[in-house]
């Protein structure tokens, strides 16, 4: 079934939506994005994603083309027009399409940002086979740029990393810088040792995950100790449990790291509990 998508103010069948070949998102990866999960046709953590979008745009000096209410309206229109019950809404804003290619930023007075949103249905979102089994991760070098806190569309290396992981018989890769894990290709990374949840502290090295913020808050509320610090590859391989978080996968248990099985090789009790809490609370708070 053809989706209705949003492009620069219009709602169109996906085959009719067009963006210029001069768009700086296409030519230079000069753009940012967000992915917001939809459960029961409602948005999970909309305000977290909106706030991060504003920050990403601000860091790149791109004017925010809409206010909170405007963004919320487009998200809700797309949910309604596509009858979306479970899945995601992908949103992208680029610096727009000047009529040529130039390293110098175009004048924002004459070049408006390009705005694209579309839905992705996922009936297996809540009852995910990967969550039941747990995933395997491979370690790879983190070769990305130094501003990973900005959610840009420069996803070539993460995409290559995912392919390296698949080639190695794994589901995903964790990236390593100076011996410590930064994050997954499209998620934040955690280990659990002696009941303590350990995850890298926020900095320019990682994306400030919206799911990360929620999960750490729920963990603390459930009296689970949290350490926000870097952890080594060896610590990861000898952890009791591990997991990743992202808007589209929630809390996803990791059962194997670089060929080392964690615990019994099945999703651990704390990761499983956090997944349940996260889904329950997010569902309650969705708007
Ligand atoms: N880190 C990276 C590199 C990501 O791409 C993502 C997901 N886009 C995340 C972390 C998780 O962020 P969030 O919980 O906001 O989806």
Describe this structure in words.
The chain is α+β, with helices and mostly antiparallel strands and 287 residues long. It folds into two domains: 118 residues, Aminotransferase class 4, branched-chain amino acid transferase, N-terminal domain (D-amino Acid Aminotransferase, Chain A, domain 1, 2-Layer Sandwich); 157 residues, D-amino Acid Aminotransferase, subunit A, domain 2 (D-amino Acid Aminotransferase, Chain A, domain 2). The chain is 29% helix and 29% strand. Strands 7, 8, 9, 10, 11, 12, 13, 14 and 15 form a nine-stranded mixed beta sheet that branches. A hairpin with a 2-residue loop joins strand 1 and strand 2. The longest helix has 17 residues. The radius of gyration is 19 Å and the shape is globular. The mean pLDDT is 97. The site of 4'-deoxy-4'-aminopyridoxal-5'-phosphate has 13 residues, from helix 6 and strand 13.
Summarize this, please?
The protein is of the alpha+beta class and 287 residues long.
**Which structural category fits the helices and strands?**
alpha+beta
Can you identify the CATH superfamily of the largest domain?
Answer: D-amino Acid Aminotransferase, subunit A, domain 2
The CATH topology of the largest domain, please?
D-amino Acid Aminotransferase, Chain A, domain 2
- Describe the sheet with the most strands: 9 strands, mixed
Helices and strands, in N-to-C order? EEHEEHHEEHEHEEEEHEHEEEH
| Heteromolecules bound | 4'-deoxy-4'-aminopyridoxal-5'-phosphate
- CATH top level of the largest domain is Alpha Beta
Specify the number of helices.
Answer: 8
């Amino acid at each position: 079934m053809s989706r209705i998508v949003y492009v620069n103010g219009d709602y169109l069948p996906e085959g009719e939506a067009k963006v210029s070949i001069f768009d700086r998102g296409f030519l230079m990866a000069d753009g940012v994005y967000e992915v917001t999960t939809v459960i029961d046709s409602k948005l999970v953590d909309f305000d977290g994603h909106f706030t991060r979008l504003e920050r990403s745009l601000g860091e790149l000096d791109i004017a925010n083309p809409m206010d909170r209410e405007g963004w919320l309206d487009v998200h809700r229109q797309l949910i309604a027009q596509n009858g979306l019950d479970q899945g995601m809404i992908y949103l992208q804003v680029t610096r727009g399409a000047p009529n040529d290619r130039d390293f110098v930023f175009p004048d924002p007075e004459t070049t408006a940002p390009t705005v694209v949103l579309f839905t992705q249905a996922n009936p297996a979102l809540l009852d995910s086979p990967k969550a039941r089994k747990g995933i395997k991760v491979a370690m790879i070098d983190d070769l990305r740029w130094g501003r990973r806190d900005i959610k840009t569309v420069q996803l070539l290396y993460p995409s290559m990393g995912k392919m390296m992981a698949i080639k190695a018989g794994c589901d995903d890769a964790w990236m390593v810088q100076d011996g410590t894990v930064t994050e997954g290709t499209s998620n934040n990374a955690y280990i659990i040792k002696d009941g303590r949840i350990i995850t890298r502290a926020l900095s320019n090295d990682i994306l400030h995950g919206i799911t990360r913020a929620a999960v750490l808050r729920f963990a603390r509320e459930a009296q689970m100790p949290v350490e926000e610090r870097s952890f080594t590859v060896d610590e990861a391989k000898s952890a009791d449990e591990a997991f990743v978080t992202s808007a589209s996968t929630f809390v996803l248990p990791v059962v194997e790291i670089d060929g080392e099985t964690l615990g019994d090789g099945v999703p651990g009790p704390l990761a499983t509990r956090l997944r349940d809490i996260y889904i329950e609370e997010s569902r309650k708070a969705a708007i």
